[in-house]
Amino acid sequence: MAITGLNHVGLSTPDIDRANAFYRDGLGFSEIISFAWPVGTPGADAGLGLTNTAASVTVLLTGNSYLEVLQFDSPRPIAFDSPPTLRREGISHIGLEVTDLDSATDLVVASGG
């Protein structure tokens, strides 16, 4: 078996609308699909290895990379209380390829990042 690329990054957030506004509306990612499932959806629970899940999901695309944004309503997410650092478990950052670093930095800051 050979790994041929990275398909997507999953980002769990307490506020999917805010995350979507940042990545889609602010940074220009394209929305591919949005969906949700209620508590008691056996296929979702089995796929995640959890029970009684409920969540909203948006899949976004930029270039050839996908970002899967998830908001879990059940079970409630575990919040990160510490400031983001490279040493904290979980996603510490997402690297984007850009053509103009200064313009990209201005866009990220203007979009709330």
Structural domain tally: 1
CATH level 1 class label: Alpha Beta
End-to-end distance = 38 Å
CATH topology: 2,3-Dihydroxybiphenyl 1,2-Dioxygenase, domain 1
Oligomeric category: single chain
CATH superfamily: 2,3-Dihydroxybiphenyl 1,2-Dioxygenase, domain 1
Please state roughly what percent of the residues sit in beta strands, choosing from under 5%, 5-15%, 15-25%, 25-35%, 35-45% or over 45%: 25-35%
| Share of helix, binned | 10-25%
Biggest β-sheet description: 4 strands, mixed
- Tally the beta strands: 4
Order of helices and strands: EHEHEEH
CATH architect. name = Roll
Poorly predicted tracts of residues = none
Spatial strand arrangement across the major sheet = 1-4-3-2
Structural class: alpha+beta
Structure description:
By secondary structure, the chain is of the alpha+beta class. The protein has one domain (8-110): 2,3-Dihydroxybiphenyl 1,2-Dioxygenase, domain 1 (Roll). Helix content is 25%, strand content 28%. It has helices spanning 16-26, 42-48, 101-110, and strands at 8-12, 30-37, 54-62, 65-74. It has a four-stranded mixed sheet with strand order 1-4-3-2, with helices on one face. It starts with 7 loop residues before the first strand and ends with a helix. The model has no long low-confidence stretch (mean pLDDT 85).
